[in-house]
Amino acid sequence: MVGTKRKYVFDFDSTLTQVEALDVLAEMTLRHNPKRLEILDEIQEITNLGIDGDISFTESLERRIKLLNAKEADLADLITELEKKISKSIEENKEFFHSHSDDIYVISCGFKEFIDPIVEEYNIPSNRVYANTFKFDDKGNIVGFDEQNVLSSHNGKIECLKNLELDGEIHVIGDGYSDYVMREAGIADKFFAYTENVHREKAAKNADYITPNLNEFLFVNDLPRKISYPKNRIKILLLENVHPDAFENLSNDGFSVELVKNSIPEDELIEKIKGIHVLGIRSKTQVTEKVLAAADKLLVIGAFCIGTTQIALEAAKERGVIVFNAPYSNTRSVVELAIGEIIMLMRNVFTRSSEIHNGKWFKTALNSNEVRGKNLGIIGYGNIGKQLSVLAEALGMRVYYYDVSDKLALGNAVKCSRLEDLLSISDVVTLHIDDNPANKNFIGEREINQMKDGAMLVNLARGFVVDIPALVSALKSGKLGGAAIDVYPKEPRSNGDFETELRGLDNVILTPHVGGSTQEAQRDIADFVPNKIMDYINSGNTVDAVNFPNIRLPKQENRHRFLHIHKNVPGIMAKINEVLAKYDLNISGQYLSTEPKVGYVITDVDKDYNKEVMQALKEVENTIKFRVLY
Ligand SMILES: NC(=O)C1=CN([C@@H]2O[C@H](COP(=O)(O)OP(=O)(O)OC[C@H]3O[C@@H](n4cnc5c(N)ncnc54)[C@H](O)[C@@H]3O)[C@@H](O)[C@H]2O)C=CC1
Ligand SMILES: O=C(O)C(=O)COP(=O)(O)O
């Protein structure tokens, strides 16, 4: 708790609530007025001019009340509306207002008629609420305000606070310039610009501290709060143009998110990763051991795609960094492209299309075939391979598949136990094996020679899986009738120039790694991966982690949660429990999951405990990471 006695002076509009109450009142009273929009704009403009100190506050109030045309009876509806608009982090931290009630004041240029009932819920009594009061005529119309009240005059908050003669250190928390002036006048000690609802440049520029929500204010002042670590302090870096929904989802949960369009090379990432808690990438960014070694704060990596071999998964695990991916979100998109390309190749469509683009009409049935009744060879019968199998059969193709692991055949698909059996029978061979480096040059000269003459090859898996020079020579010689290639051994980090030996070859479809690049897939990924990230950060869940023991837990209620990641060495759990026992913690649940290298134990404890236990747990030998959640 704090040493010096402090008093907390809160503004009301756009600080305790998300809105300006008079604007809400105007929305209500002008509902049926044909000039509603114009008047609302005018009111808002006057509000802003007043808040920023560009016109006198008295003038702003007078002008707005005239335009409002409100009645006393409207105030009840306004209060109901405002109750729904309490700022999110204020509502979360109701406990703070209760425990520090005696030291909390509201000084507002709004009106007691609606502020009192709202803040009463937060244990702030009317005698600590300083605000204006309305004047009504005998028909109950709001016709003005009490002009004797200092708060109705320009910079009235200064006078008001001065008159209070509060002792101790005074912290003012508000969104507007009128809050800052109390500190400028030397009556308050600190001004915190509150930006949860609105970021006002003038207030922020003059603030001692900009606080994006109450959690941050409580954290920096070491005051009791709902969550252990303000989310705005958790920095998320999203690379490779992930869908903007990911930014939305993570920002809306309160995290600080930076979006970067491109992938960035190792040396730049080594610099950029410092201080980052969550990294989001797609298939291009190499997260090497060196990058991980520089990542001083990293907790999670989200691969916004299927493949994860671009990440040093083992090294991440050993550093307690959890990796999630999106194993199913773009499956359908890849399958649809594969189907489309198989048909386009079999009909030689791209050749015909290029001819017309070059001013040539060449109508022919030469080398143009239906896919119905043809043999499709699927290599890699995983999520993509299997779905493709079903759709290809629906088109009347005969499906053969080959996989290193035992896979159940769907529909009438026929399993080939040897690769060469599949290669020798297929009219089209399509690759859907995973991105394991052992699959390098999986299709080379030997395999191509085992294929039917004039067969087609589709690669939507990884570029290194096909030996490109061997493919080029097979296409040039006519051994293969065509190919569709979406992935390349070396792909550029951003859009721009690109060269491949496959350029200019007949009946070869070239696409820039867009198998998973559809709106549907990217939107789904931008929902799926952030949810996994938030679940881990907020609750410690590791379900579906690619490189880590999986634990699924309910969100802890009224408990503190210790997350302890450690090397899986003999006796470590005994040591952890020894510490917990020494500090006499009341444990309400403990969950452990291990795999050969690391262990992950979660302990839920009652809220009252000796906080020294946290340091003691961090110091347990072989601890990799320790975090507390509440
Ligand atoms: N072009 C693009 O934009 C996209 C490409 N991909 C690529 O597609 C790959 C496959 O994706 P999913 O089907 O979701 O993966 P998956 O893991 O469900 O399936 C891969 C299958 O390949 C098999 N396999 C691996 N190596 C093999 C080998 N040498 N021989 C035979 N079978 C082998 C595995 O046993 C597994 O059944 C991803 O790993 C990724 O590299 C995925 C999404 C988009
Ligand atoms: O999901 C995958 O593995 C892909 O290859 C798609 O990668 P991308 O998100 O397009 O970089």
TrEMBL record:
Pathway: Amino-acid biosynthesis; L-serine biosynthesis; L-serine from 3-phospho-D-glycerate: step 1/3
Keyword Transmembrane helix recorded: no
Main EC class the enzyme belongs to: oxidoreductase
Reactions it catalyzes: (R)-2-hydroxyglutarate + NAD(+) = 2-oxoglutarate + NADH + H(+); (2R)-3-phosphoglycerate + NAD(+) = 3-phosphooxypyruvate + NADH + H(+)
Keyword annotations of the record: NAD, Oxidoreductase
TM helices/strands, residue ranges: none
Domain ACT span(s) in chain numbering: 561-630
Highest rank taxon of the organism: Bacteria
EC number: 1.1.1.399, 1.1.1.95
Residue ranges of coiled coil: none
Pfam families: 2-Hacid_dh, 2-Hacid_dh_C, ACT_AHAS_ss, HAD
A GO molecular-function descriptor: phosphoglycerate dehydrogenase activity
Family the UniProt entry places it in: Belongs to the D-isomer specific 2-hydroxyacid dehydrogenase family.
Listed NCBIfam families: HAD-SF-IB, PRK11790.1
The protein's role, per its UniProt record: Catalyzes the reversible oxidation of 3-phospho-D-glycerate to 3-phosphonooxypyruvate, the first step of the phosphorylated L-serine biosynthesis pathway. Also catalyzes the reversible oxidation of 2-hydroxyglutarate to 2-oxoglutarate.
Name of the protein this chain belongs to: D-3-phosphoglycerate dehydrogenase
Classification lineage: Bacteria, Pseudomonadati, Bacteroidota, Flavobacteriia, Flavobacteriales
